[in-house]
Batch of 2 targets.
Target 1
Amino acid sequence: MAARRDALSADIVVVNHHLFFADVMLRDEGVAELLPACNAVIFDEAHQLPETATLFFGENLSSGQLLDLCRDTLVEAVAGGGELPALRPAVAALEKASRDARLALPLDAARLAYAAATAKDAFRQALTVLDDDLNKLSNLLETQAPRGEGLANCWRRALDLHARLARWSAEESEGMVRWAETYSASFQLNAAPLDIAAIFRKQLQGHPRAWVFTSATLAVNRDFSHYTGEMGLDEARTACWDSPFNYPEQALLYVPEGLPAPSDAAHTTAVVEAAWPVIQASRGRAFLLFTTLRAMRRAHELLRERFDAAGVDYPLLLQGEGSRSELLERFRRLGNAVLVASQSFWEGVDVRGEALSLVVIDKLPFAPPDDPVLAARIEYLAKQGKNAFMEYQLPHAAISLKQGAGRLIRDETDRGVLMICDPRLIGKPYGRRIWQSLPAMRRTRVLEEVTDFFAAAPVE
């Protein structure tokens, strides 16, 4: 509340995307407002907005929300002057139903389309029990709501979660995608709109003010049509400025020859083989970025074997061995480390100077074809007569690749090599569109040119 009072009296308010959309949702529901009215909204890193908006304009129900409700119900019952005898068994039943629903899904982390999740008899039965137990707790809380505001809040939460479960389980709505997501000890049921253009356009029309969307990776080969179409920005004026960095002199794009297709089981091994002489030439100082956690872990194992066999002393870091901020601090301080990472390090990471001189990317970052959200969006676009690959998958991959490539050159004095280990960049017709979206680096397929590049600027 103190922060909100400060915001109301400020000329400029800086918030993240999530808080902005939380304010939008509260205003739309007529509940309240978090942020003051303003004459201009400026979104930095605006390429993230479609995903953020999709999540906010959808809804979810998680086992964590259910267990939080159970815990808070017992706390509020005690605070309200005693515990209703029927309340504890009702809470225990809901806790068990929530855990049973998790056990009815795959044990490994996964994203399951609605049809795949509900095809399992055990999960359908678990949802029926969950629905029944949540309804019983809600009815019980209704009788106890007059005892205090805390119990009344728990009752409203129970009603809301029960309604979400009912909507998720009901017949699918046109233009919505539903899926289940599992984690090590929890699950989440999600529903989200497949097209946010109309929803976002309504926000623009309902709040007359200046809207500015800015990012280093909004355009694909200087074309903004993918982004403006996805966000419903039909009347937007667009502009693109070149980077102040001297990419032709400062950076080299290297695509090795002879690599197997990304779908080949030997691809990760081949990536490490091809990257090894480049890592030696760069004297460590490298990010190796992978599109899957499995490939990341396999590459780390192979590199560890390489380092031990060759007797090199470059520190080898792995995503997950610490927080992102801790790993970045160690990487900067060590000065010659090799970090093997995945999606977490593709954007929002800034390492300036010689500590990062090589970025290796294993594959073009297309979303996995079995992802339920992508599959639903492809089907949705196909029904509209659109080419989902050219109009959605390809632009998203190009933007994501630009984010990963952007880790390399962070100021006017940085130099480095971007190594992309995906033969589709050269061998497929759409590859040209992707590499033309990257900064204007000098390109090569010859290893000796890479080693000469590093030799021309020896590490002091």
Note: The mean pLDDT is 90.
Target 2
Amino acid sequence: MNDTLAPHNVEAEEAVLGSALIGGSHVLDELTWLKPSDFFIVKNGWIFEAILNLHRRKEAVDNLTVTDELRARGQLETVGGTAYIAYLMNITPTYIHAVTYARIVESDSRRRRMLSIASGLAQGAVTGDKEKIKELVQLAKSMLDTPDDGPEQLRQYLLHVGELDSLPEVTWLKPGIIPSKGLVMYYGPSGVGKSFLALDLAHDLAQAVPVVYIAAEGEYGLRLRSQAWRKHHQVDAKDLKLYFFANIVSLIDDKEREAFMKVVAPLKPALIIVDTVAHCMLPGNENDTRDMGLFVKGTKDMQKAFDCAALLVHHTNKGGKVERGNSSLRAACDVIARITGEDESIIFECQKTKDVAPFETRYLRLVKVQVDDQHDSRVVLPSEKVVQTKNDPLTRSQRIVLDLLKMPANQYGLTRAEIADQADMSNGQVGRVLSDLMGLGHVKQEERRGPYLAVTADTGVIEKKV
């Protein structure tokens, strides 16, 4: 067999050895089915054999004992000396995935043996040796049985408290906003700019990592939106690792999801954007606990298979304050951001993060970009917050709140929650509006936690400055 064509994975072999050196008996107890002959690189097989010998003798397994064992066997210098043993430990971030690494090594070994059997069958066909052919066919059938994927496979998820220290730290595609491995949700009402924001993120990250965007709705507007982003940011399409899947993918349907994953697997995506949840969980019901559970599981299975992040674009409910559907989706997410509109601004605010501080609220705006003589689109840009003075006209949101407070029925004032309910705004949005109105002298609060009262008349209406 040509060594350059023989199936093998050097990184997986090194990771198995590094895991055994770090984890010792914790790892080796779960790798009883792996053999030194399964390693393609000869020196790696020697090292694993030395490790197994120590384990069978119930001796400690670490860099010192393995080095001493190899020295006694006269193989230390041949494998690369103590430097190679140290290298194996340094390149292995954690041993908790040792079983997964070992499965790769064992699978490649089985494939090499199958190739050898295929070669023997071809030779038997030429010579007409029927007995040899029967023997090889029987051997091939026996090799199709894989090691038990039950308790041994699940062992990697059972950790002693001391093993937690070896887990890798959280890494980010977008610091504080998109973890490199996790489930993220952006939600907001229709027309607020969710897809523009998701597209901006996709284009930005695709300059460095592969991104797959499932455009399950509004796919016909993608061309202009992408052209507008590339024109404004002066980025050529060939410099972007961005791929659009312009159709619906039912992530609760195992066959459809697996077919989609096979299509995008060669891209090795670092981020998959699902736009929107409603379309990609059909024919499921958003409000059904079981259907939403299947959607979450399907999405996480996909995310874990690619070792990537998944971003879900979702709508708000009729009240416009929380996301639509069953609450199990919120519980499953690592990061949640709400997108709302306030006058001409888009407000991007953190609703949930795990293990890190929430990111600061961001103010954005949609800016027109002329794509060509006949077409234009919009791109998302940061919104410059201009200091408003008392001489400036009020914004639309400020006028709504002030008019509400000036109504005769509200002469004794309203709480922030009451204003939010009557004005159909979020509590956070009302808080920002009240803060601005108080700073301008239009609203007062006589005591802490007391009602807000109107104290002046407004002077007109203009669109909010950005």
Note: Residues 458-466 have pLDDT under 50 and may be disordered.
